[in-house]
Every structure is written in structure tokens, then in C-alpha cells.
Amino acid sequence: MLTVNVAVLLAVIVFVRLRRPVEPRTRLDQAFGIAVILVLGLLLAPTDFGQSILGAVRQLVEGIAKAAH
Q: How far, in Å, CA of 63 to CA of 69, rounded?
């Protein structure tokens, strides 16, 4: 039996959609893209990988905030 991780499947969909040539898109196409990326983010957030990305972004934002003062 073959199992597919939903987060991996959505990551592949996002990668394929980003490789397409830029062309005018319909509202439905834009809404689908936004929904896929949001669901991917929700699936990755509780994982160790998602937490490490969150930590890296947090450090980057804190560094920029300290440099601005």
C-alpha cells in the first residue's frame, strides 16, 4: 500500500505552480493557490521543520528590529 504525506503532496503542487510561466490568472486560480499555500502552512506549522522555520524568521525579525533602534 502506498501512502502519501499530504504536506509533501501540497509542497509538490506549490512547486509546480510556481514553475509555470507568469500569465494572467483568474480569480478562481488565485484563490486555489492561496488556499493550497495556507493549508500547506497549517500542516507544516506543528512539525519540527515548521518550528525551525518559525524560529529562524523570529530571529531575523528581532535582528532587524534591533538594527532599526
A: 10
